Amino acid sequence: MMPDRAPPECPMRALPPKPPARAEKTTLLNYIRLFRQDILSAQPAKLYRAKMAEFRTPFFRSYLVNEPALIDLVLKDRPDDFPKSDRVREGLAPLLGNSVFVTNGTVWKRQRRIIDPAFEGGRIKETFPAMREAAEAAVQRIGEGVLEVEAASSHAAADVIFRTLFSIPIEHEIAAQVFQEFRAYQRAQPILNIAAFLPLPRWLPRFHRGEVKRTAKAIRGLITQLTAARAEAIKAGTAPRDLATKIMQATDPETGERFDTEEMVDQVAIFFLAGHETSASALAWAFYMLALYPDVQERVAAEATAVLGESPTFSEVSKLKFTRDVFRETLRLYPPVPMMVRQNKKPERFRNRDVKPGGQVVLSPWHVQRHERLWSNPDGFDPDRWSTDEGRSSARDAYFPFSAGSRVCPGAGFAMVEGPLLLGMLARAFRFERVEGREPQPVAHLTVRAKDGIWLKVSRR
After folding, report:
1. Cβ–Cβ under 8 Å, residues 416 and 422
2. Which pLDDT value is given to residue 207?
3. How far apart are CA 333 and CA 356, in angstroms?
4. What do you get for the CA distance between the two ends of the chain, in Å?
5. Among the four 130, 337, 349, 397, which has the fewest Cβ within 10 Å?
6. Rounded to whole angstroms, how far apart are CA atoms 280 and 153?
7. Does an H or E element contain 8, and which?
8. How many Cα atoms are found within 13 Å in the side-chain-facing hemisphere of 261?
9. Residue 20 burial (CB < 10 Å; 0-12/13-18/19+)?
């Protein structure tokens, strides 16, 4: 186990908020109840030390794997033997349909062959002007006073998605409707529904909440309008060269096929969920880290002032080295997707334990990235660790906020431009301060958010 150490410039630095752990022993019904409320506080504290843990139910067994070699086995070495679990798909099916986030096998491989080229490095540079416009709009839009910054982060991240995907700002009528419906969907959607715990036949209803079905249908209907309009513009030769056009015109290099409208709606739904919800989560926690550690905030503001022009360029963002490390460290402590679930197709043996086919293999960035055996000062916020050999070594073994291997998030590079850009531009323009008595409590729903929001005092510099 690595020794704990505090960041050298501030030895008494307070720890960022962390969910309380449940009691070591509990009943299955209580665990399900806790899990549906918040998957983080439903887990015992020993998972931050364990290399592996097994959980048994009458219907399935799950294995939380924290050992780097086993994580690599599942994600990098043999991903085809560990497809995504259908249990996670159950809860998200009304919104995501047959999107790349939930598919497996040949369907997933075909989808990635079409999607991946749109997110290659050179393509990100092409979308950067739209990303910058969204950041500039956020600087103008955000007010002063005591503000709930998760809402502001969601607004900014959604604006980035709409501008880069469809060349429309968040103020566009349909974009605004999607944004509002998605906020309602977030409040209604549990991380897992009852069908994720019980082995229901396919012909039985899936017990989705009425509000989940209503908002998912509304979101998909609005996205269908945008997608159909873009298809017409492509036919007419008037479509802008944004991400939607690139993906809709892309062909599978093996079959020559393109996405039809229904498939494109599925993909746009996950782009919005992954690209907006996860970025918003990470940004909101990053702003809280700036407020919690004023010395870090001043370093970020000074760096942004020094390297970013009035209207930043793509090349200037690469100079935000410390700001990028602040964003990385925030992703370490608050990975937007806290757990990933796979299932093994054939018999396995993990740490001298038999894992029968169909076992639920849980990979938890939340626990691995705070693991006491894998990180020094695991619960501390230390962006300077990323410039040390020890920190980089830990990151190679135990850092995967965007997943890893063939199923790594296709938008990971996009997010690592968007996050530092927004963080730097907003820290340059505003000062963020804590509000006494309003410390956020992390909970996991669709992503890691604060139970009652993140409230900060915001003032212009």
Report:
1. no
2. 46
3. 32
4. 43
5. 349
6. 5
7. none
8. 14
9. exposed
Among 284, 287, 208, 324, residue whose Cα is nearest residue 448: 284
Whether residue 179 contacts residue 170, with contact meaning beta carbons closer than 8 Å, is answered with yes
Supply the DSSP string of 174-242, one letter for each residue: HHHHHHHHHHHHHHH--SS-GGGTS---TTS-----HHHHHHHHHHHHHHHHHHHHHHHHHHHT---SS
Give me the pLDDT at residue 242, please: 92
**Domains of the chain in sequence order:** 28-460 (1.10.630.10)
Helix (H) or strand (E) holding 355: strand 353-355
Q: Tell me how long the chain is.
A: 461
Contact indicator for 437, 457 with CB cutoff of 8 Å: no
The set of long-range contacts for 61-65, using a CB threshold of 8 Å and a minimum separation of 24, is 61/355, 61/356, 61/359, 61/360, 62/341, 62/359, 62/360, 62/361, 62/362, 63/350, 63/353, 63/355, 63/359, 63/360, 63/361, 63/362, 64/362, 64/364, 64/367, 65/350, 65/361, 65/362, 65/363
Rounded CA gap, 320 and 306, in Å?
Answer: 9
Return the number of other C-beta atoms located less than 10 Å from residue 451's C-beta: 15
CA distance 391 to 374: 10
Tokens of 175: 């974009």
Residue 296's Cβ-count burial label (10 Å; 0-12, 13-18, 19+) is buried
Among candidates 401, 416, 372, 412, which has minimal Cα distance to 75? 401
pTM of the model: 0.90
Beta-strand (E) ranges in 69-118? none
Q: Are strands 348-350 and 353-355 parallel, antiparallel or unpaired?
A: antiparallel
Q: What is the pLDDT of residue 140?
A: 95
Number of other CB atoms surrounding residue 308 within 10 Å: 20
Average pLDDT, consecutive stretches of 10 residues, N- to C-terminus, the chain (461 residues): 43 81 71 72 89 83 94 96 81 80 91 89 87 96 94 93 93 88 71 47 50 84 92 94 92 92 88 84 97 98 96 96 98 94 94 92 96 96 97 96 94 94 98 95 86 95 93
**Which tokens sit at 252?**
């599978």
What was the pLDDT predicted at 9?
44
